[in-house]
Amino acid sequence: MKKFINTPATYLMDSLNGFAAAHADLVTLHLEPLVLTRRERQSKVALISGGGSGHEPLHAGFIGHGMLDAACPGQVFTSPTPDQMIAAAELVDTGAGVLFIVKNYSGDKMNFEMAAEMLSTSNATVIINDDVAVENSSFTTGRRGVAGTVIVEKIVGALAETGANLEDCRLMAEHVNSRLASMGVALKSCIVPAAGTPTFNLPDDEIEIGVGIHGEPGRRRSPMASASSIVAELLGAILADLKPEAGVEVLLLVNGLGATPVSELYLLFNDARCQLEQRGLRVSRSLVGNYTTALEMAGASITLCLLSKELTALWDAPVHTAALRWGV
Amino acid sequence: MKKFINTPATYLMDSLNGFAAAHADLVTLHLEPLVLTRRERQSKVALISGGGSGHEPLHAGFIGHGMLDAACPGQVFTSPTPDQMIAAAELVDTGAGVLFIVKNYSGDKMNFEMAAEMLSTSNATVIINDDVAVENSSFTTGRRGVAGTVIVEKIVGALAETGANLEDCRLMAEHVNSRLASMGVALKSCIVPAAGTPTFNLPDDEIEIGVGIHGEPGRRRSPMASASSIVAELLGAILADLKPEAGVEVLLLVNGLGATPVSELYLLFNDARCQLEQRGLRVSRSLVGNYTTALEMAGASITLCLLSKELTALWDAPVHTAALRWGV
Question: What is the DSSP string of A130-178?
Fold first, then answer.
């Protein structure tokens, strides 16, 4: 296993300590339980997310103005625990309540549910399940939550900054989730540090279409293919799910899974944008980069979000986090 | 070869078309010759860089307010041609002259020199050679120019926005270059699309200390080691070159070479920061991410820049580019 680590046991804390030091203007790292909170406090609905580590910059990289107020990192590919979520809520609640944004994995759902029940502060939860690749998977019942989560966090984060109440924030998160669809593809597996061996094995000339962000199986193995035919397959599944009307404006996110260089992500973006415009859709907003990774997996995912005037304005609103920043 | 490409021959244009479409608010892509220019024009010294492709987001990702006015992308790992540089200069010169920022590779130097001689507009050139790994290399005489180039482009870009003249911009670029040192390490080779096979072969348990951003050999092959011992070796070489006085403030850049996830880069940052502070240096500014890559090479580099009040203020000045953005 060739990784930049000291020991598998210290990997998470070494990485989080680096993150917290590099972004000390934005976040505070709390220990026992492990929580990252936003440095600048504001009286508004608090947004909290979390999940297994290994998907960086998700979620800690999205703490800051216009997005999250706290993140709860679990061990690699392992749900955080209810005490982390409770501590996070108590640290960032300003009286307006707490919205938990949870990717649809059984462990995360169960632990966030437990935390929600134990919390005395008012709270609500939204489950993100944007991955159209498969129904039910290794770690979950129903569709998985993947890179579309970033779009939910951005849009609901902007709404929360306007002073919207908890129920309106929850409804907006549900609304965005209903207009999101994603699908990924792997060229090479990742290696979980504690395991030390690849999560799955792909022959040198095969790819996994519909892979999950923990290396869960997708729809099928396929021989290596051209970028445009891979994009066509991902977009086909995404559009079959979203069924957008012609002429609708979309946000196109091309997300790297960790080991794919940005030049290839822009190449995928180019193919995806051309194919969408050929189908009469207009890519009016875009995001290209590593936003929801799977350790050092080589691969990428495509996410579409159907926009409206309201969603576009919330997407464009200022954001200041470690991984996403504009307008401030 | 598993890459997201259509054909090796179309790789560069497909990727650049995606980049230009995703950042149409910032850049304009010109064909024949291939040049990217900044959309928003301003009367000031124009900064132009360029070099072989495969190092994205360098250089096109740094076009915009507070950094570059144009970039000339060559084919992968191949210098751009003088006609690109001349076209770039003619497109962005506003009468205040043009500064060429050139990484120290023989092909780039020769072609930028030729362009400079043929240009009627006033111009100057600075050669960046921050890589302390080796003297002389596969593609160059003297030290290579690597990730420190981003710091030169940022600081001189900020100075140019203040209305500084060409000679002052050139002197500042030389000054920053003299206070920069970098060294990299590879865990895995990249594959040049047109070649289709790895540039070099590393056994499963070995790393290349001091690797260049085209896969040039470094100082030595070493068995895989802990992150902190790798960091110690890179910092040792960097500090032996810079010989900073105790108490000096530094900018610490941990740069990914393409296939290393940001969680590992933050882990390297954590080790580097702790080791620097133990030596009495203060990391007052930092940057962690993929800024100067080598296609899909797994690996990272560390760059230190010795700061001063003036350099810190220029580093902090607003910047709005595809890959670096703050304050606007």
Answer: -B-S-SSBTTBSSSPP-THHHHHHHHHHHHHHTT--HHHHHHHHHHHHH
- B223 and B162 in a single domain? The answer is no
B261–A227 CB contact, under 8 Å? no
Quote the Cα angle for B30-B146-B309, to 5°. 100
Q: How many domains does chain A have?
A: 2
**What is this structure's pTM?**
0.97
pLDDT at A136 over 90: no
**Closest by alpha carbon to A299, among A208, A222, A229?**
A208
Is the same domain home to A312 and A274?
yes
Tokens of A256: 């790297």
Q: CA B34, CA B50: separation in Å to the nearest integer?
A: 11
**DSSP H helices in chain A:** 11-22, 82-92, 106-118, 148-161, 166-178, 227-242, 262-278, 309-316
pLDDT exceeds cutoff 90 at A35: yes
- Same domain? For A18 and A137 the reply is yes
Residue B328 pLDDT: 82
The complex scores an ipTM of 0.97
User: What's the confidence (pLDDT) of residue B138?
Assistant: 83
Measured distance CA(B286)–CA(A279) in Å, rounded: 43
Cβ atoms of residues A176 and A305 within 8 Å:
yes
In a domain, A7, yes or no: no
Q: What is the mean pLDDT of residues A67-79?
A: 98
Count Cβ neighbours within 10 Å for each residue of A39-62 and write b for 16 or more, e otherwise. eeeeebbbbbbbbbbbbbbbbbbb
Q: Which residues of B touch A266 (CB under 8 A)?
A: 15-16, 18-19, 22, 56
Q: Are residues A190 and A130 located together in one domain of the fold?
A: no
Give yes or no: residues A163 and A184 share one domain: no
Which among B4, B230, B283 has CB closest to A260? B4
Rounded to 10°, the helix B11-22/A262-278 angle is 70
Among A145, A178, A211, identify where a domain stops. A178
- A241 belongs to a structural domain: yes
My answer on whether B234 and B137 are in the same domain is: no
- Is A55 catalytic? The answer is yes
Chain B residues whose beta carbon lies within 8 Å of the beta carbon of residue A234: none
The beta-carbon neighbor of A11 closest among B6, B14, B267 is B267
Q: How far is A30 from chain B (nearest CA, A)?
A: 16
Examine the domain organization and report whether A106 and A123 are in the same domain.
Answer: yes
Helices (H) and strands (E) in chain A, counts: 8, 14
Residue B312: which domain range? Answer: 180-326
User: Does some domain include residue B2?
Assistant: no
CA B143 to CA B137: how far, in whole Å? Answer: 8
Token pair, residue A316, equals 């464009």
Provide the CATH number for the domain around residue B308.
Answer: 3.30.1180.20
- Cβ distance of B18 and A288 shorter than 8 Å: yes
3-state DSSP of B154-206:
HHHHHHHHCCCCHHHHHHHHHHHHHCEEEEEEEEECCECCCCCCECCCCCCCE
